[in-house]
Amino acid sequence: MAKITVIDDDDVLLRMVGMMLERGGHQPTLISQPAQAMKSLKDSRPDIVVLDVMMPGVSGHDLCRQIRATPELADLPVLILTARSQEVDRTAALKSGATDYMSKPVTSQELLERVGRLLVEKPAASRVGQIVSLVGFRGGAGRTTLAVNLAGLLRRQRQAEVCLVDLSTNGGQAALHLRLATRPNWADLPAAASLDWATVEKALVSHPSGLRLLAAPAGLHPPDRPAADLVTTLLKLLKDSFGFVLVDLPPVLNPAAQAALAASDVVIQVVAPEVISVQNVVQSGRAVAKGAASARHLIVLNHCFANEPLPLATVERALNGRVDVSVGYDANQTRALAQGVPLSLTAAESPLPTDLGRLAENL
Amino acid sequence: MATPPVVRNKVSIDLFTDAYRVTGTAVIGAGGIHSELGNPASDFLELQDAYISRIQDPGDIVASYTQVAFRKENINFIVLQNRRDGIPTSTQHVRSVFLRGRPVPVFLTVPSFEIRGEILYEGKPKPRDVIVQAIGRFLPIFVAKASASLYPDISYSGDLILVHKDRIGILCFADV
Prior knowledge:
The complex is a heterodimer of chains A (363) and B (176). By secondary structure, chain A is of the alpha/beta class. Chain A contains 15 helices and 13 strands. Chain A has helices at residues 11-23, 37-44, 60-69, 87-95, 108-121, 143-158, 174-177, 197-203, 228-241, 255-263, 275-291, 312-319, 333-339, 343-346, 351-361, and strands spanning 3-7, 27-31, 48-51, 78-82, 100-103, 130-135, 162-166, 205-206, 212-214, 244-248, 266-271, 296-302, 325-327. The longest helix of chain A has 17 residues, at 275-291. The mean pLDDT of chain A is 87. Chain B has a 10-stranded antiparallel sheet with strand order 4-3-2-1-5-9-8-7-6-10. With 176 residues, chain B is mostly beta strands.
């Protein structure tokens, strides 16, 4: 039996959903005044919230954002249940931070199945402090796409506290993938000696999903930025506060990349199925392994384009090792990038998040 | 003999003007929303509990009101998830006039949107004939999808889309 708070301004629908949940063995709390919702949620700390979108005064999306911005409620699974049934509505719900979405009318069986799934997915607690670095010295292999989507998956599926760090010195693209501002960014951080959690937190940009980003500054910066000691201190502070810290490394083995590798618990090397990318991983493999000697190493084969020449077996033969996860080509990725909405947050059935799910399970 | 009471149902609809999407509840009779739109006694269609979004940001609600009225001539189209809510459906003995004919793929434009779907038509469709012969102000497009012209990733699907005939810019049929 789970404690489930249902928020809907329509009394009839509210009672109906309440009855469905009761018959499913749950303990529903019904709230018809959305203005009272936040106080009730803080007081009762339910296991799940079922939330209508169209309510007078405050929309379900606004409430969801408030829930995500409240530290004690930030991990609460939110199921949006709305009469707005279009794909754009699903996207809007997930962008506001909802865990899942259903359109009305809904049957008792559908509702109970979905609630059951959310209860199973809800973690007892996120695993604490894993630094996962994504490496790819060949541009265009989709390293940032994988980093952003993996961060989204960990946030959405595991309800984990996730911070994505873009260490690029040439503009960085993680903010673009998430349609977030590039200010503040790592260039705004003080020297390592002055760095504390309060300063780091101010430099993080929040995504509506609850994901946090330390963006790269726009424009070109010297390859020796940020300083290695700053990266070491920064990652230690982030590791203490987040379940997962995903680091999108620059495509050069600069001091910042070396510091990040040394701090990593997991290193994911991204390779595209084409000769130069494979050759690049072969040549850089030893340096990466040496730089992150204590880390677990994974190789991801990312099909960035529809037609690519090298089959999996050829790539594995060239690497003299196994590819841990192969991510299929996803035609939706171009649209996702243009919209600034990662597929892992909006289109869970799409090939890219589906394949990346196996990688997320591996972490 | 007493007249049987008129049954009125509430249905949820998505209604589109040039720049706005409005989701709300309409009260309809047996003739569906098409009948309300064709009612000559009123130039307005009324919705209850309406939530308004801009077309380019359709998930964000910018305003909500319990009572909203629309001039019928300014409605571009209405998206319905169930054709029964839109048009009179067949009875045990009579097939609805709206559901006669064979499906013909159609593409049409209204301000800000392009719409793909099917019309049901008997004989070889000619655009002028389809427009003239269709009953009422609104043309039913079945299994339809409306995409925003300037934001093609924003689209709305429905079992039925009722399109204001006077707002149609381009109307095309596939050969069948």
